[in-house]
């Protein structure tokens, strides 16, 4: 199913409730910087955003999932325009090297947002009991025999952060991209076969291996989940604040 009534309905209502855009005439800020970029314009990047269905989640959880889905779209939109406008820049080289294919990364982003999500489901009912058996370690999991179904555990809601916390709770290399709920949801789609299409996977996950992929294995870096997630986080941070908040990149390979 392309659209879930519940997520669309709630998404529309959250969209209407997005923060009021400040302009010179309505704000009395102490500096003269204009507030730009962080409006709901990211909703216009794609015409056919697809959504998973939400099942067995309560009102609080649905509200948070909708908010975090918007985070996913905002992060993806910013990474996408960064990629198109900057191409193989320093942020790109950090995660994909200087000979990684930028168009592969572009395709991954578009495919996550607009690709068919038939059968993709977020459920909060811990149907296989794995949240309960891993209460402090598993924010979510994919069902053993229905991997397109993502079970979201209570730990997801208590440990993941809204994208507004980027650069506030620490540098990216310290907290990791999956600390942000929207990026974590992006990563969960890449576990679904119909979305990763057999190409994108978690080939390596250790920080030093990600750096090694970027430096010595670009063709795998561009299809490795965590390399893509770090790029999303770094480009978002660069949009958020001059210089971003990547942290100590060189220390990653030590
Ligand atoms: C805000 O003020 C600046 C400087 O006066 C001006 O260049 C800019 O266009 C104004 N922005 C808006 C949204 O009115
Ligand atoms: C901005 O400051 C002016 C002058 O101090 C004041 O008259 C006005 O009400 C303020 N506007 C807002 C939106 O706070
Ligand atoms: C939804 O479930 C969570 C986790 O079990 C709980 O903390 C929260 O209070 C529930 N919200 C509602 C509205 O029932
Ligand atoms: C998954 O399917 C296999 C084979 O049908 C079955 O043996 C197994 O119990 C199933 N696992 C779960 C968690 O449902
Ligand atoms: C890349 O490969 C070279 C040659 O094998 C090696 O010296 C270097 O340490 C590798 N880079 C990383 C980041 O592992
Ligand atoms: C790149 O990574 C893949 C998968 O881990 C591995 O099979 C391949 O040998 C690596 N290539 C190089 C040049 O290290
Ligand atoms: C974050 O990284 C910057 C340099 O990019 C560094 O100056 C700062 O100390 C780091 N902050 C933390 C909390 O590690």
Automatic annotation (TrEMBL):
Q: Name one GO molecular function term.
A: zinc ion binding
GO CC, alphabetical: cell surface; extracellular region; fungal-type cell wall
Q: Does the keyword Signal apply?
A: yes
Q: Which residues cross the membrane?
A: none
Question: What span is annotated as the signal peptide, if there is one?
Answer: 1-17
Please list the residue ranges annotated as the Putative peptidase domain. 10-248
Q: Which InterPro entries does this UniProt record tie to the protein? A: HRXXH (IPR029482), MetalloPept_cat_dom_sf (IPR024079), PRA1-like (IPR039124)
Keyword list (alphabetical) reads: Signal
Q: This protein is called what?
A: Zps1 protein
Q: Which organism is it from?
A: Pichia kluyveri
